[in-house]
Write a structure and sequence with these properties.
Mean pLDDT: 87
Strand order of the largest sheet: 1-3-2
Number of strands: 3
Strand content: 5-15%
Distance between the termini: 35 Å
Helix content: 40-55%
Length: 113
């Protein structure tokens, strides 16, 4: 199958499934702008500096290689970064970004089954 005929990855379908199973994330998900980007290897959340809105960037090629269970886990993981204010008020000044990211990832992953 050529790339032109390949169906594009649809994050919305997987987000909808998550929201049916985990309604806690429904309100949060509606407030996050989601954008496909091959500039990142997996997924991440941030505040858009221009709009001030929460934004989730995700690599569609990464998501295509995951199972539905793994996709759900990644979505929950990224939403938890927002729930725990990891990209806003709890992010300390002067702390190494990579160390902070690893620490918050480990904290979140301990909650996900």
């Amino acid at each position: 199958m050529s790339d032109n005929n390949k169906t594009k990855f649809d994050l919305n379908m997987h987000t909808f499934r998550l929201l049916q199973q985990e309604p806690f994330f429904a309100s949060l998900s509606r407030r996050i702008h989601k954008h496909a980007s091959k500039a990142i290897p997996t997924a991440g959340v941030k505040i858009n500096e221009e709009s001030g809105q929460f934004e989730m960037l995700y690599n569609p090629e990464f998501f295509e290689g995951l199972t539905n269970k793994e996709r759900k886990g990644v979505l929950i993981h990224e939403f938890y970064h927002l729930v725990f204010d990891h990209v806003t008020s709890r992010r300390p000044d002067g702390v190494n970004h990579m160390a902070w990211n690893v620490a918050t990832d480990l904290a979140i992953n301990s909650l996900i089954t």
